[in-house]
Amino acid sequence: MDEVRPTSGAPAHGLVPMFPPGLQAIYGECRRLYPEQANPLQVTAIVKYWLGGPDPLDYISMYRSAGSPAQDIQEHWHYVSFGLSDLYGDNRVHEFTGTDGPSGFGFELTFRLKRETGETAPPTWPAELMQGLARYVFQSENTFCSGDHISWHSPLDNSESRIQHMLLTEDPQMQPVLTPFGTVSFLQIVGVCTEELQAAQQWNGQGILELMRGVRLAGGPWLITDMRRGETIFDIDPHLQQERVDQGIETEGSNLSGVSAKCVWDDLSRPPEDEEDSRSICIGSQPRRLSEKDTEQIRETLRKGLEFNTKAALPPISSQRPSHDRPQSRKDSLESESSAAIVPHELVRTRQLESVHLKFNQESGTLLPLCLRGRLLHGRHFTYKSINGDTAITFVSTGVEGAFATEEHPYAAHGPWLQILLTEEFVEQMLGDLHELNTREETKLPKEYSWPEKKLKISVLPDSVFDNPLQ
């Protein structure tokens, strides 16, 4: 449980030596922006995480920002977290690894919320939102990056708001700081509508954020979240915004390389009774576990654009992330630098399958056009990792290196990891057949799609099938 109180008081000048150096460094950056607010209101964890409490963030400071009238930036509340970075340097929370690398996870979260008329104190719900994100980071050890998106599936403030998801970007004012325990950058949470999240998935988060910066009602240059915003950027400027998104998808493809999902696959190549050689993956079954190398490769694909919400059980994702500066090309690879060091490869026989049946829930199914159009047509791959176990499904194009599916044997499996290689011609055919999944309207379920000549079947099923496997 958290409590709200004024900061107890490190004075603005002449900090005592016992004041934690990591905390002091972040306070210093806050004081640079808000010299008149040396003691802002804070939400603080009553029982600190390192003493067994549930909340990883020791503090969330809340500042009142005047914005910038000259830039038409409105007044708002500015929230800053303390605890994702190493505040203390004594290994109580984060392992101290030196001053050259990141401090702790290397970042803190910020959030800018429009101040409502007559509001004299900042709402505290953003603090719980930030704690929820921090809990995910600590539990999964997955670090966030600018441009990442977060599917939340619920109004951020538990109201009736359309702002139900988040994108992440660099805070427009706070500069990275160098602490005695490493560097800390500041990632700002930006509330978005479902349509904006979907556009970010199909294209990329940075592109949508740039569009939002140009629309005052959607956040403006500082990307201030307005929970009362009822219009998306596509409502505000229907033709221009959608045209720019479509052009971006067409020319650049999607940066989303994988999602946690409700999915399973069945091998239709062998009769069900042939259990020793058949690898029919069913919910509730106990398939062989993924090898370390397979797991590492799947983690690699899930490091960007991971979807999650507060209710799902999340798979552990590695904290080491690839560089966003690496140029994308038509020749993508499933082999990660880190996985190459894992030897020997666990002895799991690659099995070629003749016929497969893929099953997705509705949310996962609606991402199939994105997978095909935004990834495979650009020579890339896309992975669905089941939240219910080790099952994984990776779609690959013919240009992807490191895949064990080939044009000769397009369906191949390592234990519960299935790879499906699709030619460009077949992708175009599937996009036509799956066109109704592009609509935002709910599709009547179950829905089945079949390509008998390719021996491939896809079913989109209700969540209840995945949530209650024994029924």
TrEMBL record:
Keyword Zinc on entry: no
Keywords: Acetylation, Cytoplasm, Developmental protein, Isopeptide bond, Nucleus, Phosphoprotein, Ubl conjugation
Domain Suppressor of fused-like: 53-229
UniProt keyword annotation of rRNA-binding present: no
Pfam families found in the cross-reference section: SUFU, SUFU_C
Compositionally biased intervals (Basic and acidic residues): 322-334
Gene3D superfamilies: Sufu, C-terminal domain
Spans annotated as Disordered: 267-295, 309-341
Principal subcellular localisation of the protein: cytoplasm
InterPro entries linked: SUFU-like_domain, SUFU_C, SUFU_C_sf, SUFU_N, Suppressor_of_fused, Suppressor_of_fused_euk
Coiled-coil intervals: none
GO cellular component: cilium; cytosol; nucleus
Alphabetical GO biological process terms: negative regulation of smoothened signaling pathway; negative regulation of transcription by RNA polymerase II; signal transduction
Subcellular location: Cytoplasm; Nucleus
Suppressor of fused C-terminal domain span: 243-460
PANTHER family (UniProt xref): SUPPRESSOR OF FUSED (PTHR10928), SUPPRESSOR OF FUSED HOMOLOG (PTHR10928:SF2)
Family: Belongs to the SUFU family.
The protein's name: Suppressor of fused homolog
Biological source species: Champsocephalus gunnari
